[in-house]
Design a protein that fits this description.
The complex is a heterodimer. Chain A is α+β, with helices and mostly antiparallel strands. Chain A has 24 helices and 17 strands. Chain B has a domain of about 100 residues: 2-Layer Sandwich (Alpha-Beta Plaits). In chain B, strands 1-2 form a two-stranded antiparallel ribbon. Chain B has a two-stranded antiparallel ribbon with strand order 3-4. A two-stranded antiparallel ribbon of chain B has the order 5-6. In chain B, β1 and β2 form a beta hairpin. The chains are: A alpha+beta, B alpha+beta.
Amino acid sequence: MPRGYAGKFLEVDLSSEKIKDATFDDETLKNYIGGRGLAAKILWDRLGEKWETVDPLGPENLFLALTGPLTAIYPGARVCVSGKSPQCNGIIGSTGSSEFPSELKCAGYDGVIVTGKAESPVYILVTDDKAEVRDAKNVWGKEALETIRILNKEVRGILQEKAPNVGKWKEPGLIYCGPAGENRVRTAAVMQKVSHAAGYGGYGAVMGSKNLKAIAVKGRKPLPDVASPGAVKILWREVDRRCSRRDRTWPSAWGTGYGGYEVGARSSSEPVRNWQEEWHGENSFGGPKFDFRYWVKRYWSDFNCSASCMKLAVIKTGPYKGTFTDDPDYEMQAYLGPNLGIFDPGKCIYLSALMDYLGFSGINGANTLAFATELYQRGILTTDDLGFELNWGDVEAFEALARKIVRREGIGDILAEGTYRAALKISEMKGVDVTKYAVHVKGVEIGAHGTRSGEDMRPAEYACSPQCGDHTSGVYDAYEDMGMVFLDSAVVCSFVDGELLWDFYRAVTGWDTTEEQWNRVLGHRIIHIQRAALLLGGPDIVWDPAIHDDNPPRYYEPLPSGPYKDKTTDKKAVEEMKKQYYEAIGWDERGIPKSEVLKKLGLGDVDRALDRLRN
Amino acid sequence: MWPEASMIKVFMLVPGVEIPHLCAQCHDYPCVSACPVNALSVDNETCAVLVDKEKCISCAKCIDECPGNIPFLHPSDNKAVICDLCGGDPECVKVCQEAKFNALWLIREGKEWAKKNLNRKLFAQTPEELTRDVAANLYGEKAEELI
């Protein structure tokens, strides 16, 4: 086993409660590393042949929670969750941070592979080289704070009982789904701590579909050995110094918590009222308003990271007293602020926390809230449909709607399918095309960065990405954009200074892989597998690149306000960029990976599967 | 790296409430007097508690007697672990200063003063006790629901 890895993966079949260790040969790990890359490989190997028929919310799907060799050794540990995505029917690598990944590696596992479906709610408890499936009825239906409180207490009790003499047991690392995931809401996130979400992909719903409430893990072993301990020590110190440099104002010290004003006012690419605008200059929504009134902790990080991008926001007065959440970061500020017509930091914090507590993705689920609100604004959805008025800025109405969606009640059952699927159903229901108000790419609601002003995302960055609406991993030249594929596969945070990343990687693993090799060959394999899965799609929706490798219609409406008024995304520029990207990555004019490119990369099985589309 | 072997543990029993947990160096060293085999001693220079791993019999009496249950048994050799201040040049202080958080400083005190400093023992609390206080400080009444 190469260095940096704990050495084995835990495989749990919930249908039979069979637990075993899984391993991958060195060549596979060298090529796909871990996280998103290895997830793509595992999913393809196991489900590729029948991809179109696999229901993402059925027992055949896999739920993966994977680390990588850099995870917990390089600052900024994350865990990457994946599976067949209930949003896009492809493969998305979605990462979130906490001590779960370091605990997992210290328990002797590089990842957890979950198959099947439990008969009743369960959680998986992982301790040193062991795992068990335990009853989770007492936490099923519970929101985040209760879930964490109960599981912390239960797991610490179990550990204390097993080893009463060793001293105080720390809390376990925990990933879990909230009520949204339990009810298979397609925009449900996989949660960690109280507010760290792996939101893209809808993997909270995959957990829920398997009756899997949580995975709790406590490891007492050391992190895995590295190939060159001396070099890693020096590199770690330098990376730590860089990410903790106080003279760098962004992102290390401040995170993106000042973005809610800045991205609207300066780059004019922040969603406002379901993206009807992308500019606002509301001083009330400025960083200092969050900072001085709500942030009780300005510097906060998870294990082994001094970047301190996290904050702790607590509401101390008024009707929302006692609410707390991390940050909110820029994405939450935008999606639970201006995009709902909210310009009051306290209200934004309240709704951000609510989404976290429900395990309802603050980007994807909140996008659906705004979509529904626009339909109400246009008279398409009415109080008869909703049971209440749904006006911009109305926090109580948004809370009511979020809870309705999470419980799948009434109209909530339709909106729980995510913005795009809901748009299709509502169009049918109302006899009017509402897909033009759905801001998504291939079923994945888009992050809070627009293309219209030209100051933020590139014209076809989302359109061609196998991560679809994911704002963290857009595509552009099939070279530089492989960097994010690497971070998601080595599974570390993109907010840590990356200059020494490749030296660090070689020092940890002992492999001689270069950035050039990754950007030209290894990363491409992962993108092709993700692309193949996305195009095969199914069972409910299949994407046609000619139509769906594009921005949502809203991105072609002229901006109605702000310094970039009347500007919009240039359709020609999108087509041009799309063409260039297809060529660079090796897809044909229909957007299907070319046979010769796949064969050259050793992806013959992917090539054969794509014949199903080519003919 | 070995988080579970670290002389400093950081608990987070309630989200957002971090509790660094390490030896507070009580003036009367209850752990030292509790040790049945004299495996614990006090360093002359730093006043930190030193563990003689050869002598330690893993009985956990030091953990029980510590007001904060701060010592623990090492995951590999099962011997008591208590912060030894890295022999007077603590790594935690260095890394904190390098990161410019400046949360930790090194203060040198004479042995006589250390004996008189009754305040230190007040810091020797269990993670649960500390969590209760810090959570109340951060979250107010809401904290009670979280513990």
